[in-house]
Design a protein that fits this description.
One of its GO terms (molecular function) is ABC-type oligopeptide transporter activity. By secondary structure, the protein is an alpha/beta fold. Among the domains are: 182 residues, P-loop containing nucleotide triphosphate hydrolases (Rossmann fold), CATH 3.40.50.300; 208 residues, P-loop containing nucleotide triphosphate hydrolases (Rossmann fold). It has 39 helices and 21 strands. A six-stranded mixed sheet has the order 6-9-10-3-11-12, sandwiched between helices. A five-stranded parallel sheet has the order 18-19-20-15-21, sandwiched between helices. It has a four-stranded antiparallel sheet with strand order 2-1-4-5, with helices on one face. The termini are far apart. The C terminus is likely disordered.
Length: 1205
């Protein structure tokens, strides 16, 4: 019942929890004093010594109501403060642990679940710290206090009540084990849902290419249905136990009341004592019953805590805190080995013995998958779980602190992460004190300064992942950042992949300029980059196969010589093809240029309000600009600048408009809703009339009206027993309705995202979208399970009670009606008004928090490398603090409204009692009737109080509903055509095509005209950012042209059946997206019904079959998150295998060999040569050796920049 370790995880919460418990006790004493005082005063009225409540009693009651309201407010505030303190503490601990684990955290937990644990996991612990723990201590104290207070005046009923109370903790203990297991299953299923959603969002372009989005949609629905069932299982346990506790609570209260009434009737108990028992009886059980409700509500949070503890308990590689300051560093490896955690495969590295002298230039080469990037991760300290010894100047790498290591080694990978924010902010990660001149100098060395100046300068805003830049532009900015870091050791890991020849030349010159001044290690597939190296290391199968200078290695017959010869052959072939095709490219350029000055060779300016996408690839990182309805995520360290989903474009809906849209979904489930309303109404009436029958019993025991006491006791017991099952039925129906609708909403949301992809999703914060699909949709449960039927129940119960009052004492009906309207209508509206936009800000902030956390995890390698983890953690704390400030503000208003409402209800109840007694004193009604009406009215506020609480709780719900509707209502960039023409590919054509990304000031393509005949291979050439990948996207119809037409087989693509179009096109994006399944599952995505022979043939063409067959599990080998268990070259070859398996007649290949070694490139080029006889190929590649297979080259540079090559 109490998790000591969880409580110790947030010591800051202890004092607020203690204060909350103390204030709960104060409120209880106030209630006890008030009821005893009322009992004695009313006893005097029944004895005829007075006719109304005396002023002293009224004053005491007023003070008690005020004390109870203030204590209630303080209790809730203290609980909220405890919850917030706990969330902040736990979130910080999770982030620090993830930083300690580094990129290897993925071996323990998926990125999606890590985000969920850090954000929603800590949020779900709110109930535990803010409600459950204070209530636990209070529920142990309250029955004892009540027993002590009632024992002197009503010993028998007090003992009966105390005896019944112990059944509730017994029930909690009985269900705890089952509840824990069910709750853990719930959390695991919820985490799976979030992981799958994030994975599909990141890979939606790939799914659309292979028309697999429909299949994944069904899988998502299956996962959502599994989550619904897991939720209902947890809810079933919760409702069953709560129902049983209701039976004990109300039945126990009825038992205590019956004992008191019998004793009153026998004359063994005074009126005041009987009154106190009747109206304090439920106070015995309410704390324990509330604990039971909170126990189950806290279980989901406690289930997440299990995963949090697993993460926090993950063993880290021991790291000491040695310091090392040196301008010149040598690096050495002795018997180094590395096996990826959780992998039973052959070690990726083994028996590596290498020396990297200070200020030397070392090249590392080998076939893709040889272990080169793994070695780079080991040398940089990002892969701590190595065996053997790695030392810098004789100091073991693991003995160095992370901060020290960050000052010694810089790695420049092929997929460097750029963060949302400005270029300045990204560069200053590496050098916080860098001047503008220093930053521009670094950009100039990398050949990207002119672009930056043209596009907006250092303050140019980048989207998440730099998705509004081309691949080459991102890579050069990342290189400039690395140069600013200025460490004695640099490791360049395929730093020139996917960039044009001119940029490659500039980067190569930068690397060569560092020779003799830095210890430089270059990992490359392009052997020319390491030709001048002092030493070249050849890796093969995870070990050093050869070592020596270029001159030495080419003289042998080893692997390097094979690679060199293969590359030389490819380059000679490329040179010959270039000479032969030179006239073709010139003619093509002139043909295009004759129409217009067409294409910008650089990306154009992106204003902070709206990015303009330059040339880029469609990939998992979503590299195009967003649509006109989307603003980019802004600077990562300025949370208020971040933009949530579609926030600027969609007109804000009123809460009423959102409610109207949401309520329409209930119509198919109306009969079930009617049943819930019926059961809820009867249940509330049972609770109310339990007190009514008790009041009748007191009147009978005191005045002897002739009513049957036994019948009244039976009726009271029946009401007490029925309340539990009726509440169970109502809640089960409500939640079944709610979670069926939530599953449906997830279905239509996923469908909307399919329609919007890829154009409207590129550049958007994926964490925010996942927040909508998980947290926002879950919040809609408040509307469907706790709003619709409670409103109906409150209306029906209020009408029935007014009828009852009218039949008993008609004169009180106006006051009762006014009271119900005040509490159930006026106060909720007022509560909603004072809440303002806090709920909306809270949900948008939650989305920002998830996006920021996701981006931090995706960029963990860069954060560690540049020693930026502390700054990023501070920003996370800042975002959390701002979010908590909004949350505390909203909850403060909610607590104030709750306290004020309790005081108002108490005052209305006392006013009704006094009014009823006044009517009795005037002879308008009988004293007994006045008593029954007054105290039945006091017990009848339950339904309308539920409405009052909706005034604040619905603020977040409507904000979440609005965020969901924003996505559902957004118009896709391109609508899929279902009734268009079906085609067989016979060629493609661009006819005066102009195109710009939404919101851009300049066009990427302008009046471009060219034809691609069937059976030809065409290469698109030009500088980075000139429009090559954009051309491929237009051929896929991921975007529509601004003017002109793209035609396939003579048909405008806007009139072609989308499924037919995609069936005719095979598109390989720059960055191959792999899903977290097996290698075989990833390849079969292109053709799920492929035979094993077809699968193997496709892999053979992609030169990846030998690799797969060498793996212990073959095609069943897990690819890992985003293909993280495979090298970049292996991922790219698997992507090619997917294309070959799809076997479309029209191939669009974007940098198909950028991460592949010369031997595998030769094999792939040969396979593509074999495909030319029956396929048409459009190729984008900065490798001349790959472009050599093209029959024609089409330049997309400006005519003045086109040289014909």
């Amino acid at each position: 019942m109490f998790d000591k370790r969880l409580f110790e995880l947030a010591p800051e919460a202890r004092i607020p929890v203690f204060i909350s418990v103390v204030l709960k006790v104060v409120a209880l004493f106030a209630n006890i004093i008030m009821m005893i005082a009322l009992g004695r005063a009313i006893e005097g009225i029944f004895q005829g010594t007075s006719t109304l409540l005396d002023s002293g009693t009224l004053a005491l009651v007023a003070v008690a109501l005020i004390v109870r309201a203030v204590a209630g407010y303080g209790t809730q505030r203290a609980g909220d403060i405890a919850a917030v303190a706990a969330k902040k503490s736990i979130r910080t601990k999770i982030y620090n642990k993830l930083v300690s684990l580094g990129p290897a955290y993925q071996e323990t937990v998926s990125t999606s679940e890590a985000v969920q644990l850090a954000v929603e996991g800590s949020e779900q612990l709110e109930v535990y710290f803010g409600g459950y723990v204070p209530q636990l201590f209070f529920s142990l104290i309250a029955p004892v206090i009540l027993f002590i207070c009632l024992l002197p005046i009503a010993a028998g009923p007090a003992c009966m009540l105390l005896a019944c109370v112990v059944f509730i903790p017994a029930l909690i203990i009985i269900v705890r084990r089952k509840a824990t297991a069910v709750a853990e299953d719930y959390w695991d299923t919820y985490a799976d849902l979030g992981s799958m959603f994030l994975e599909d969002l990141q890979g939606m372009t790939t799914l659309k290419i292979f028309q697999a989005d429909k299949m994944r949609h069904q899988q998502m629905n299956n996962t959502a249905e599994g989550f619904r069932k897991a939720t209902m299982r947890m809810l079933g346990v919760q409702l069953t136990s709560i129902g049983a506790m209701d039976v004990v609570a109300y039945g126990g209260a009825a038992a205590g009341i019956v004992v008191a009434l019998v004793l009153l009737f026998q004359g063994s108990l005074s009126f005041a004592a009987a009154f106190a028992v009747v109206f304090l009886s439920q106070e015995f059980f309410l704390p324990m019953r509330a604990l039971g409700s909170l126990f189950h509500a806290a279980m989901s949070g406690m289930a997440s805590s299990v995963r949090i503890f697993e993460l926090l308990d993950t063993k880290e590689t021991p790291r000491k805190d040695a310091k090392l300051t040196a301008q010149q560093c040598e690096l050495s490896c002795r018997t180094v080995g590395y096996t990826y955690p959780g992998s039973s495969a052959t070690p990726t590295l083994h028996s590596i013995n290498l020396d990297f002298p200070a200020n030397s230039f070392t090249g590392i080469v080998g076939k893709s998958g040889a272990g080169k990037s793994t070695l780079a991760a080991v040398l940089s300290g990002h892969a701590d779980a190595y065996t053997g010894t790695v030392a810098i100047n004789g100091v073991e790498l693991r003995d160095l602190s992370a901060s020290t290591l960050a000052t010694l080694v810089t790695v420049v990978p092929s997929d460097s992460m750029l963060f949302a924010g400005s270029i300045r902010e990204n560069l200053q990660m590496a050098a916080p004190c860098a001047t503008d001149a220093a930053m521009e100098g670094a950009l100039g060395r990398c050949g990207i300064l002119n672009f930056v100046r043209t596009a907006g300068g250092l303050d140019l805003v980048l989207s998440e992942g730099g998705s509004n830049l081309s691949g080459g532009q991102r890579q050069r900015i990342a290189l400039a950042r690395a140069l600013l870091h200025d460490t004695p050791i640099y490791v360049f890991d395929e730093a020139t992949s996917s960039i044009d020849a001119e940029s490659e030349k500039a980067i190569s010159e930068v690397i060569r300029s560092m020779k003799g001044d830095r210890t430089v290690i270059v990992i490359a597939h392009r052997l020319s980059l390491v030709k001048e190296a002092d030493n070249i290391v050849v890796l093969d199968g995870g070990t050093v196969a050869e070592e020596g200078s270029h001159a030495e290695l080419v003289q042998t017959s080893g692997l390097f010589a094979q690679l060199w010869e293969s590359q030389r052959h490819l380059e000679e072939r490329a040179a010959a093809a270039e000479m032969a095709a030179n006239s073709n490219v010139i003619a093509a350029s002139r043909t295009v240029a004759a129409s217009t000055d067409r294409v910008s060779s650089t990306a154009v300016h992106k204003t902070p309000a709206q990015p303009e996408s330059p040339e880029s690839s469609t990939s998992t990182s979503a590299r195009s600009a967003a649509s006109s309805t989307h603003q980019p995520t802004q600077a990562a360290h300025q949370p208020d600048r971040a933009t949530s989903i579609n926030q600027a474009a969609t007109p804000k809906r009123s809460n009423f408009a959102i409610m109207r849209r949401l309520i329409k979904l209930v119509r198919p489930l109306a009969p079930r809703m009617a049943l819930a309303i019926t059961l809820g109404t009867i249940g509330f009436l049972a609770a109310i009339f339990l007190m009514a029958f008790a009041s009748y019993g007191i009147v009978e025991g005191t005045l002897g009206t002739g009513a049957s006491l036994s019948l009244l006791c039976v009726a009271a017991v029946a009401c007490g027993i029925l309340r539990g099952p009726l509440r169970y039925g109502e809640q089960l129906c409500n939640h079944d309705i709610a979670f069926r609708i939530l599953a449906y909403i997830r279905d239509v949301l996923y469908g909307a995202l399919r329609r919007l992809a890829p154009a409207k999703l590129e550049g958007r914060a994926k964490g925010d979208l996942v927040s909508v699909a998980t947290g926002d949709i879950e919040l809609l449960e408040v509307f469907y399970a706790h709003t619709i039927s409670p409103i109906a129940i409150a209306c029906i119960v209020s009408v029935i009670m007014l009828v009852f009052f009218g039949a008993t004492v008609p004169e009180v009906v106006p006051l009762a009606l006014a009271s119900y309207l005040l509490v159930g209508v006026v106060l909720p509206i007022f509560a909603s008004h004072i809440s303002g936009k806090a709920g909306e800000h809270l949900r948008e902030g939650q989305g920002r928090l998830e996006s920021f956390t996701l981006e931090s995890l995706r960029g963990m390698r860069e954060l560690l490398q540049f020693g930026h983890t502390q700054e990023r953690g501070n920003t996370l704390t800042q975002i959390t603090n701002e979010l908590c400030k909004v949350e505390l503000s909203l909850k403060a208003r909610s607590a104030a409204m709750e306290a004020a409402t309790q005081a108002i209800v108490g005052s209305l109840a006392i006013g009704m009692v006094q009014f009823a007694f006044a009517l009795a004193a005037s002879g308008t009604t009988e004293l007994g009737a006045a008593f029954v009406v007054g105290f039945t009215f006091m017990s009848s506020f339950g339904p309308v109080l539920a409405l009052m609480r909706l005034g604040t709780t619905l603020q977040q719900t409507f904000a979440s509903g609005g965020r969901v509707l924003d996505i559902l209502d957004e118009t896709p960039e391109t609508l899929e055509i279902e009734d268009g023409s079906n085609i067989e590919f016979s060629g493609a054509e661009f006819d005066d095509v102009s195109f710009s990304y939404a919101g851009a000031h300049k066009q990427v393509l302008e009046q471009v005209r060219f034809a691609i005949p069937q059976g030809e291979a065409v290469a698109l050439v030009g500088e980075n950012g000139c429009g090559k990948s954009t051309t491929l996207k237009l051929l896929m119809r991921f975007w529509d042209t601004c003017s002109g037409a793209v035609r396939i087989s003579g048909h405008d693509v806007r009139e072609v059946h989308t499924a037919s179009l995609r069936s005719n096109e095979g598109y390989l994006t720059q960055d191959t997206h792999l899903f977290a399944g097996t290698i075989g599952e990833n390849i079969r995505l292109a053709k799920p019904d492929a035979t094993d022979d077809q699968l193997r043939a496709a892999c053979a063409k992609a030169s990846v079959l030998t690799l797969i067959d060498s793996l212990p599990s073959g095609f069943d080998t897990p690819a890992g998150e985003l293909g993280g268990r495979l090298s970049g070259g292996e991922r790219q070859r698997i992507g090619l295998a997917r294309i070959f398996l799809q076997d479309a007649p029209f191939l669009l290949l974007d940098e198909p060999t950028s991460n592949i070694d010369a031997l595998n490139e030769a094999a792939i080029v040969e396979a593509l040569e074999g495909e030319k006889a029956r396929k048409t190929i459009v190729l984008v590649s900065h490798r001349a050796s790959t472009r050599a297979l093209a029959d024609t080259e089409i330049s997309l540079d400006r005519p003045t920049n086109t040289s014909g090559a």
